[in-house]
Structures are given as C-alpha cells and as structure tokens.
C-alpha cells in the first residue's frame, strides 16, 4: 500500500514541531562532521543526511513515553525522540556527563527518560528488543508503543523475520520502521534484497505493510500516526517503510564514489533543507516562527558542544562499572 503525497491536513503546530526536529538533526549532523574533519573529535560516526524528515515526522507522531530502539545510524532518531542535545553530544564525545557516562559512544545511546531504550551496532538486533518492550507495555496495560528503527539491509536478517512473525501472532503494539536508504554499506538494494519495496514483506506475517515517501513530512507523519493508532487500539504491529536516499558514505570519511552521480544529485535536490523550509512555510508557519526556531536550535547546539568539550572523560578505573550489575561505582 503506497501512501499519498502531501496532504494539507497536517496542522501548523505539527509542521512547526517537525521543522524544529529536522533542523536540529540536520545542523547537529553537520556540526558533528565539521568537528570530525577539524580533528576536534575522533569517533566512528554514521552520517544521517537524507534521514532528517523520516525521524522528525515519525517521532512527532509519538508520545514522550513511547519506546524507541535504533541503530548505529541513530542520531536523527534519538534527537527526534527528544533526547537532550547536551547529553547526546557528551556521549558522542565519550564524556562522563553523557547518556551512558561516556562508555557507550555513538553506537550505544540509551536514555530511558525520553524512551530511547537501546541503540545497537549489530544489524537487525534491535528489532526483537522492540518486541520485548512492546510486550512489557502490553502485559502492564500501559498503552505505550515501541518503535524499532532499522535499515533496508536489516530486513534481510533472520531476527527481522522472527520478530515480525511473533509480533503479529501476539498482536504487539510495535511499529517496524524501516528507513530504506537504498544501500546497506556498499551494497545496493537490488544486489542484496529480493523485493523492491520492504513493505511487501509484511504480507508474509499477516500485518499491514505501508510504504511512504521519507522525504515528504506529511507522508511519513500520516503513515506513522496510523500505525501508532493501530498499535494503541490493540490491533497489532505495522511494517512501515520510509523511502529515502543515503546522501553520504556509509560511515564518516568513507568513499562513496560508487553511488551514481545522477541518483545522488536527484536525491540531494529532493532532500534539500531549503525545500523543506519552503514546504513548512506553506503550512501557516510564519517566517518569524521559522527564524526563531533556527535561532533557538543553533544556540542549543552551541551550548551542547561547549558542555561536551568542557566535560571530563570517565576515569579509566571505572571501566568495568555500569557494565555488570554487580560492579557499580560507589
Ligand atoms: C549482524 C551484522 N552483520 C554485518 C554488520 C556490518 N554492517 C554494519 S552496517 C551494515 C549495513 C546495514 O544496512 P542497512 O540496514 O540498510 O542500514 P543503513 O546503514 O543503510 O542505515 C552492515 C552489513 C553488522 N554490524 N552486523
Ligand atoms: Mg540502508
């Protein structure tokens, strides 16, 4: 089932929220890459350019207490879900003030207060974990939904198929959000995946499969809102595919000359932030509102960067603490 393109039903408030999130993600990603280029930070980083709208619009359809499990390419999801910038930056910089006291780094962001429960570097491994969170919510009667965010490549992993089957049998309140960016590392979708639309795979598990345009805020927001309502009503899971294009290499600094130039420039044009800004301004969001959002977000990032840089690194003596339950810092 394909979702229609933009609908005018998205309210100005939601449009404002989506723009704030998308702008924050875009600027954070840009600032981070600049700092890696300048040598101010040295850490493995998976750029999220091209994924801003998916995270901003999908997470805008959730409540703060809903759960999220994401991946190594997860900065956009974590920020979209509402993780505080300064805690995220401090963790990315490996500082003790970060979400995981600097011991997790970018691939292991966890912040239960905003529902960011797990970030994994093992492809596909977060999907069954989201099932577990959804099951906990179902057993406790909490009405929270769980979102598993993953890539197109992850839909070829066994854990994806096992998790979709069980979620459907148990009618779990879970949404499988596949961010299809057309590449899994250096492998194209066509070279490694038996279907052209990941949403088609839902049919094998008796759940709705929806494909939306990941560069269109209304398409993502509406598809996600529908999946959330279904989960909250006790009607079970949805596989939601959001189509986009990975605009940079798999990991920061990697060569991506294998990506056809014409595909890249077409996607860059569609994913332009100026285009998103224009789209938002047509939803009764004034120029003054947009400028204020940008100013506030820019200040938030600068404050978070300063906080991360000024914070202390963890003491090497605590390396085993907070890993095993029995070995805690006193
Ligand atoms: C189980 C497992 N196999 C292989 C890898 C190496 N690996 C890291 S990212 C990646 C590609 C995943 O592609 P996709 O799911 O489309 O996510 P994307 O990076 O495009 O967001 C692979 C194969 C891994 N981390 N885990
Ligand atoms: Mg991919």
Description:
This protein has 330 residues and is of the alpha/beta class. It has a single domain (12-305), classed as Thiamin diphosphate (ThDP)-binding fold, Pyr/PP domains (Rossmann fold, 3-Layer(aba) Sandwich). Helices cover 43% and strands 12% of the residues. It contains eleven helices and eight strands. It has helices at residues 12-38, 52-60, 75-81, 85-92, 126-140, 158-169, 189-192, 217-232, 261-270, 273-281, 287-310; strands spanning 67-71, 116-120, 146-151, 174-180, 183-184, 187-188, 209-213, 238-243. The strands form two sheets. It has a six-stranded parallel sheet with strand order 2-1-3-4-8-7, sandwiched between helices. It has a two-stranded antiparallel ribbon with strand order 5-6. α6 links the parallel β3 (146-151) and β4 (174-180). α1 (12-38) crosses α2 (52-60) and α2 runs parallel beside α3 (75-81). It is globular, with a radius of gyration of 19 Å. The N and C termini lie far apart (54 Å). Residues 2-6 have low confidence and may be disordered. The chain binds thiamine diphosphate and magnesium ion. Residues 73, 121-123, 150-154, 181, 183-185, 246, 250 line the site of thiamine diphosphate.
